[in-house]
Amino acid sequence: MAAWGERLAGVRGVLLDISGVLYDGGEDGGSPIPGSVEAVARLKRSRLKVRFCTNESQKSRGNLVGLLRRLGFDISEGEVTAPAPAASLILKERGLRPHLLVHDGVRSEFDQNDMSNPNCVVIADAGEAFSYQNMNKAFQVLMELENPVLISLGKGRYYKETSGLMLDVGAYTKALEYACGIEAEVVGKPSPEYFRSALKEMAVEAHEAVMIGDDIVGDVGGAQRCGMRALQVRTGKFRPSDERHPEVKADGYVDNLAQAVDLLLQHADK
Amino acid sequence: MAAWGERLAGVRGVLLDISGVLYDGGEDGGSPIPGSVEAVARLKRSRLKVRFCTNESQKSRGNLVGLLRRLGFDISEGEVTAPAPAASLILKERGLRPHLLVHDGVRSEFDQNDMSNPNCVVIADAGEAFSYQNMNKAFQVLMELENPVLISLGKGRYYKETSGLMLDVGAYTKALEYACGIEAEVVGKPSPEYFRSALKEMAVEAHEAVMIGDDIVGDVGGAQRCGMRALQVRTGKFRPSDERHPEVKADGYVDNLAQAVDLLLQHADK
């Protein structure tokens, strides 16, 4: 471990994934991953810049931050890059009127968007709202468009809740892509534009930044393709086979965020 | 049309798709496509061999035939190749114990299969039973297997009911494939084994047979890859863009089954 810790030299900014790194979600709100509350506090007391970069698309950014603060985290809305507010801006810029296939908890992020006579579909991690009826409605909207536009908030395969692994938005996006014969546009990790917007908000260049996440493809692979370094934590949806992933190799693997912060404070910014 | 009708010379056997060719399904049971009841009767009075080859996986074969008989069709269970009975046999041969993600209407086809301690998932057109909870359960069963086996009854993208286009099993199969990083085994069209089993039951060679269906990829493309000829009907889920499909070109396009039978009786078996 010490060997690769030196690869963190020169890091000035840290992007933190939230679910599976800070906490594990669950029906009761979820619980912090041991050591993560203190690890975030230590990072924020250091000279390193910190930003949270999530694909959470079930909750509004405000609700997510409220939950994390109740769990003890020092975090504010302005520090969080989240896909729903990013998508809302993109829709306005492009004159797109969305049909939403989303969880009720995130609907408020689209309050400023015109929903009349939809000319695109926005799909997010809708959880129980991924009913056959709702999926079929989104499918029918797409099939009636001459140029169907499908915007997917992330393309995660699954995430971990306290009760077990749960299907994420990426699986349902694949279903609509296949049924309609189209390809979705992704707003969220691993889209390079999304990582770049988070880096810009932190005012740090890609080669000076490290991403810390539990998703070997979405977090680690995506950040590396943008020129960042990336660590995978062995919490959240991490599975031992991730360390033998055929395509993606993290710059380092750590047991949890606390260990990542130990290493960062020892090696970064030198 | 007359020009390509001659391509039907030498046909001795006809495979008929059911949904979208014989009838359009619907909540009220559905309705026959005009002319199809008579067209089936004329075919069966001719010297041509006839077999029905369906991907219907919401209903048991018995229920499907019962419905079609009530709509006026001359059809019996023994004339129908359907994916659920085929899958049930394959499961027994391979010692597979299925977790079923299927419509209640087809569950009886698996009465002879051992369901204890599942070592595979069978997915069919489950309709409203494609809830998030049921999809997530199937996903979790697969993720707990060392060698996950997913058997999909067909891979259709969508089908047409009287109320509109409906998502088919293929879309949900893609979702599980993506989430688990696996590839499903297909029992049903366009699997070559499935077409061959239907040809064998009709005792006709591929080059002597024609498939008639409404699905340019699953019916037409699949049958052609087996060495059969194939006609697409402009009923059911047919869309005008199918006639410009980038990869599949039917041997002929007909307005409906009645027109296909006119041509067959004129040109086949000569």
From TrEMBL, chains A, B:
Keyword Magnesium carried by entry: yes
Annotated localization: Cytoplasm; Nucleus
Keywords recorded for this protein, A-Z: Cytoplasm, Hydrolase, Magnesium, Metal-binding, Nucleus
InterPro entries tied to this protein: HAD-like_sf, HAD-SF_hydro_IIA, HAD_sf, LHPP/HDHD2
MF terms (GO), sorted A to Z: inorganic diphosphate phosphatase activity; metal ion binding; phosphatase activity
Enzyme Commission no: 3.6.1.1
GO CC terms of this entry: cytoplasm; nucleus
Cofactor: Mg(2+)
Pfam families noted in UniProt: Hydrolase_6, Hydrolase_like
Purpose of the protein: Phosphatase that hydrolyzes imidodiphosphate, 3-phosphohistidine and 6-phospholysine. Has broad substrate specificity and can also hydrolyze inorganic diphosphate, but with lower efficiency.
Stated family: Belongs to the HAD-like hydrolase superfamily.
This protein's name: Phospholysine phosphohistidine inorganic pyrophosphate phosphatase
Species: Canis lupus familiaris
Phylogenetic placement of the source organism: Eukaryota, Metazoa, Chordata, Craniata, Vertebrata
Protein encoded by which gene: LHPP
